[in-house]
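User: Structure please.
Assistant: Input sequence and predicted structure:
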Amino acid sequence: MVVVLAVVVVVVVALVRVLHPPVIGEEYSGAGPGTLGVDGSGDTTPTVGWVEPGRRFFVMAYGSSTCPQAPTDIDQRGTSVEVELRLQGGPACTADFGPTAYALDLPHPTGPGTVLDVTIRLDDGGTTVARLGG
């Protein structure tokens, strides 16, 4: 019975990690409040910016404050970086809409003047490419 229970626990933990992978990086307030106006106007495209040029950057996306899109994976190949954002929280989310930013370390630090193309893959299947530097 103990073995069966242990197997069930391992399977449940594995499923939770697949459905809700852990967030990487840390919340970052230095990105500022974003550009969304009270009337809903503004650019809500995910953005990136340097925190520490060549080493650490932030990614900011818009959504519910209780169920933000947060980074769960990062991959870097040369000057191309790919960040996956997955919806966190739930099952009930607030109907507000605001920015949430996370600071991430580059897997392979570069020189401070390097320009990187960052592909941001959103949980809903959307993709945005943003330039970091330059």
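Residues 2-19 form the longest helix (18 residues).
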